Amino acid sequence: MSLLTIRNLSKAFGGVAAVNDVSFEVRQGEILGLIGPNGSGKTTVLNMLSGFLPADAGQVTMQDRDITSMRPDKLAQQGVLRMFQMTRVFTRTSALDNLLTAGMARGLAEAEAMKRAQSLIEELTLGPVQHLDAGQLSGGQRKLLEFGMCFIEPPVIAMLDEPFAAVHPVMREVMAKFIRARHEQGATFLLVSHDMPVVVDLCDRAVCMNAGKVIASGATRDVLSNHDVIEAYLGETHAGDESLAYGDHA
Ligand SMILES: Nc1ncnc2c1ncn2[C@@H]1O[C@H](COP(=O)(O)OP(=O)(O)OP(=O)(O)O)[C@@H](O)[C@H]1O
């Protein structure tokens, strides 16, 4: 069943058609990978879906409700949450208090927010640093913290922009385990990633963009072996590197 339906979404910056007539759906309970070479328009799509950028044209519906260009705070109230490439935490507040604040901002009573915060601290292996200011955490630990903040009250859909980039492999595995566990509980994800082994590992289906357009969508392995997709990536990197999908994953 479709949770989010994106129809004919477009966005131009000056003369550049960053997103050009893009349509796809995110199904209830799936992890959908949004992939494509650098500059293909993935982040711009996420910016529009999460309300950080108004669409020039097109429509986004969530279970038949029109949420096109709704503001980020309104979307968050509807359970549409976005994690950024650059993490957003309160750097002068402890990791635990960041979680507590996130829980209370989402309407939880303090005791319930604390219970969930402590459980997330444990699950995300942040126990040893829970009382440090978030600004003192490593980049990977901050991303884990942001995962916790996003999931303190389960979102309807979580949009993740390159969550694994520049993160230590040990923490990547904690993140992947966290995503898998939430997926098993029925959570829906839209995951932008350049890390193909992780996309293969986690994503049921994938949508590939190139130059602002969707060039392939379907089962992840089918998309990654699609001729146009391989061409698009080869155009970006170097001829001969055909290891799109099948490296060892961290
Ligand atoms: N605010 C902006 N102003 C002008 N051009 C922009 C802006 N944001 C994105 N673009 C352009 O739109 C195109 C799509 O960019 P976008 O960041 O969405 O791609 P991407 O697929 O997320 O890339 P990457 O994988 O490198 O993050 C690029 O040509 C980019 O230069």
SSE blueprint and pairings:
Layout: E1 2-13, E2 16-27, E3 31-35, H1 42-49, E4 57-62, E5 65-66, H2 72-77, E6 80-83, H3 95-105, H4 110-123, H5 139-151, E7 157-161, H6 169-184, E8 188-192, H7 196-202, E9 205-210, E10 213-219, H8 220-224, H9 227-236
The structure holds adenosine-5'-triphosphate.
Task: Provide a descriptive summary of the structure in words.
This protein is an alpha/beta fold and 250 residues long. It has helices at residues 42-49, 72-77, 95-105, 110-123, 139-151, 169-184, 196-202, 220-224, 227-236; strands at residues 2-13, 16-27, 31-35, 57-62, 65-66, 80-83, 157-161, 188-192, 205-210, 213-219. The strands form 2 sheets. It has a 6-stranded mixed sheet, with helices on both faces. The two termini are 32 Å apart. Adenosine-5'-triphosphate binds next to strand 2 and helix 1.
Q: How helical, in percent, are the residues?
A: 25-40%
Task: From the alpha carbons, calculate the radius of gyration and give it in angstroms.
Answer: 18 Å
Distance between the termini: 32 Å
- Alpha-beta classification: alpha/beta
Helical stretch tally: 9
% residues in beta strands: 25-35%
Weakly predicted, low-confidence segments: 238-243, 246-250
Distinct small molecules: adenosine-5'-triphosphate
State the shape. globular
